[in-house]
């Protein structure tokens, strides 16, 4: 793996720990946001539209405090449906639909590129979906060339250019081609190596195929290979999970994400095809989570937070140790000070103190672009309290600790007065050994790390107001 700078031995030696306490997790695990934004997306309002977004960009320009950009592109199409899926996707084998979408996506990126003219330096690119590799090799090459005409990209050894890949949709040659097209990070959806579990979720993906794609990514020179797993799927047991983890460790990815499957069939139609009797119970799910933590940390992976693990010399783990880790809609990120420009249906961007989300249907998306308007449907303009709480939640999610004096230097508040009610709530968590509040520092203990969402929820003032959006998944 390429490092951009030499990492001091002291930094490499420090490893944050996480303790698994089944009793504590079953007592305190509850529904809660994942805090990829604050306020969370279910709090966005449709009174925020295209013109508000233009104001946010103009504000950046007039204040002269332009930041590098993160660019997110959403490709919503998939060939087949995975029964656990809760994403905004379109399942179709009609490739014509992707060609039409691509034409509109190019139009949107061109408009965004013009809007940020003179300040459109990209340091981070992320393709998500759906299935980004639903686009053919030629379509992807064409799109990447188009993006380079619209934006200026940082060199390969500085920028993080990532793509989510469904191993079932690519060959080794295609992986080499993606690298040549400019991607340097690849994230592979695996979910589970067990054939029975794969059948129960309608995602048949032979282990040999996945291993071949990982090998191809290494050969092609991808800087980081990451794997996504899910625990809590139908027909999964601690025994099948243990076997899957052994295979993951042998595959040796740089990063691993282990997501909790939230079974909400009343909200997500594909999940209705999962049989209730195939679902593992809460005890089995906790045991699987425990296995993931124990096996991956024993294999040398560092627990980053939420559902993420990384090798100690991976950029993500280094950024965390150096206090540079950031959280956005794509999860954890090493590039903290960027504005996020997002293109495609349902994509969410973050510019300055605003969030904006695009329309969710293809019809509305095409319609807005035909009117020469960016397809912004909703969003949020943050006030000082939101920005302050966002900073507090970011620090806790990313670093597991918070310096009170640093917050007081950045915001016109006396922390202990402003957050008196929140600090009183943290007292119960202190008694449970989840956090400690000492002098200048609020620190989340190794016992509290798996419940980090509970800690952050204390600082979320919107939770007192019922949300119109879907319910949150459980914190564990
Ligand atoms: S899990 Fe991914 S590949 Fe499967 S249906 Fe959902 S978006 Fe498509």
Automatic annotation (TrEMBL):
The keyword Metal-binding applies. Residues 63-299 form the Radical SAM core domain. Binds 1 [4Fe-4S] cluster. The cluster is coordinated with 3 cysteines and an exchangeable S-adenosyl-L-methionine. Keywords: 4Fe-4S, Cytoplasm, Iron, Iron-sulfur, Metal-binding, Oxidoreductase, Porphyrin biosynthesis, S-adenosyl-L-methionine. Pfam families: HemN_C (PF06969), Radical_SAM (PF04055). Pathway: Porphyrin-containing compound metabolism; protoporphyrin-IX biosynthesis; protoporphyrinogen-IX from coproporphyrinogen-III (AdoMet route): step 1/1. Its cofactor is [4Fe-4S] cluster. SMART domains: Elp3. Belongs to the anaerobic coproporphyrinogen-III oxidase family. Involved in the heme biosynthesis. Catalyzes the anaerobic oxidative decarboxylation of propionate groups of rings A and B of coproporphyrinogen III to yield the vinyl groups in protoporphyrinogen IX. This is Coproporphyrinogen-III oxidase. It comes from Massilia aerilata. The gene is hemN.
